């Protein structure tokens, strides 16, 4: 299969080299001609333009900085001008779902199959092939190109229709960013209270949350909307949160993330949820967003069994 790759930055370089290592006939392009040198040494060919990549390829991958660059790659004499009907484009960019859907409409009119396929794993994962790839697009066509994606990542996931890949990536990254802020917040509290950092980190890793994958902890409660009887009652969790905030107040440690959680805890307690599970305040967000989140126990287990 003739594969085009556009965007040989810190992420794109590793992914493109892995495609070449897998034996694919590779043609590459980047704004910086020098970035193509290791790829040409590995047997890839250089293209002078984006349109040339499209014309020479059965499948094109793009790894670009963002929505503006992805749209520019498509239009104005770019990929849509060069690609043939029946070919496919996988955009690996972390992108706007709205922009992806807009470009998808243009691709459909041109007979080109577009998939949004952002990746998670960083430059090391791009080089080693240890990447999650969140794919949005036609499910049947996705299977046709699965082997190509397997050359890039070890967790290739079809998430849903076009735009779903980037939605999943943005949700994952927003969670990661928020959780890291909370970790920094509580870590400064522990250190300022006199605990040595390595001992504190070790202690955190041995607790209930530290021993499990972060997102696994919501399977039994939040995802099933099952808060009774509690594993850890809200009243008890609220007591612990209040004690942490009291300590922070004594030490003059700002706790912005925890204060937001405390507001939700107060609202849940005012509703009489004190005897419910400590995850029950998460349901308040469902109400605010106007969504229903409710899986069966079997559906939760199916996701966990997939690893």
TrEMBL record:
<comment type="similarity">
    <text>Belongs to the HIBADH-related family.</text>
</comment>
<dbReference type="InterPro" id="IPR006115">
    <property type="entry name" value="6PGDH_NADP-bd"/>
</dbReference>
<feature type="domain" description="6-phosphogluconate dehydrogenase NADP-binding">
    <location>
        <begin position="2"/>
        <end position="160"/>
    </location>
</feature>
<dbReference type="InterPro" id="IPR036291">
    <property type="entry name" value="NAD(P)-bd_dom_sf"/>
</dbReference>
<dbReference type="InterPro" id="IPR013328">
    <property type="entry name" value="6PGD_dom2"/>
</dbReference>
<dbReference type="InterPro" id="IPR008927">
    <property type="entry name" value="6-PGluconate_DH-like_C_sf"/>
</dbReference>
<dbReference type="InterPro" id="IPR029154">
    <property type="entry name" value="HIBADH-like_NADP-bd"/>
</dbReference>
<dbReference type="Pfam" id="PF03446">
    <property type="entry name" value="NAD_binding_2"/>
</dbReference>
<protein>
    <submittedName>
        <fullName>NAD(P)-dependent oxidoreductase</fullName>
        <ecNumber>1.1.-.-</ecNumber>
    </submittedName>
</protein>
<dbReference type="GO" id="GO:0016491">
    <property type="term" value="F:oxidoreductase activity"/>
</dbReference>
<dbReference type="Pfam" id="PF14833">
    <property type="entry name" value="NAD_binding_11"/>
</dbReference>
<dbReference type="InterPro" id="IPR002204">
    <property type="entry name" value="3-OH-isobutyrate_DH-rel_CS"/>
</dbReference>
<keyword id="KW-0560">Oxidoreductase</keyword>
<feature type="domain" description="3-hydroxyisobutyrate dehydrogenase-like NAD-binding">
    <location>
        <begin position="163"/>
        <end position="280"/>
    </location>
</feature>
<keyword id="KW-0520">NAD</keyword>
<dbReference type="InterPro" id="IPR015815">
    <property type="entry name" value="HIBADH-related"/>
</dbReference>
């Amino acid at each position: 299969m003739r594969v085009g790759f556009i965007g040989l930055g810190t992420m794109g370089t590793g992914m493109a080299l892995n495609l070449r290592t897998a034996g694919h006939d590779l043609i590459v392009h980047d704004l910086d001609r020098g970035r193509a040198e290791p790829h040409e040494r590995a047997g890839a060919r250089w293209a002078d333009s984006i349109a040339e990549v499209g014309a020479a390829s059965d499948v094109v991958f793009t790894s670009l900085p963002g929505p503006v660059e992805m749209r520019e790659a498509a239009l104005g004499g770019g990929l849509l001008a060069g690609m043939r009907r029946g070919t496919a484009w996988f955009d690996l960019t972390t992108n706007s779902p709205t922009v992806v859907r807009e470009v998808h409409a243009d691709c459909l009119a041109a007979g080109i199959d577009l998939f949004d396929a952002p990746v998670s794993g960083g430059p090391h994962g791009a080089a080693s092939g240890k990447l999650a790839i969140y794919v949005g697009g036609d499910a049947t066509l996705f299977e046709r190109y699965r082997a190509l994606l397997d050359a890039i990542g070890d967790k290739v996931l079809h998430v849903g229709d076009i735009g779903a890949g980037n939605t999943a990536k943005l949700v994952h990254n927003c969670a990661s960013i928020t959780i890291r802020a909370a970790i920094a917040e509580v870590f400064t509290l522990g250190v300022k209270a006199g605990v040595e950092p390595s001992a504190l980190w070790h202690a955190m890793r041995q607790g209930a949350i530290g021993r499990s994958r972060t997102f696994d902890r919501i399977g039994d409660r939040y995802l099933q909307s099952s808060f009774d009887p509690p594993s850890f009652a809200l009243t008890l969790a609220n007591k612990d949160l209040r004690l942490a905030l009291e300590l922070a107040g004594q030490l003059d440690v700002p706790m912005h993330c925890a204060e937001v959680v405390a507001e939700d805890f107060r609202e849940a307690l005012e509703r009489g949820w004190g005897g419910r599970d400590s995850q029950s305040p998460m349901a308040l967000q469902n109400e605010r967003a106007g969504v229903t989140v409710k899986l069966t126990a079997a559906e939760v287990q199916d996701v966990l069994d997939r690893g």
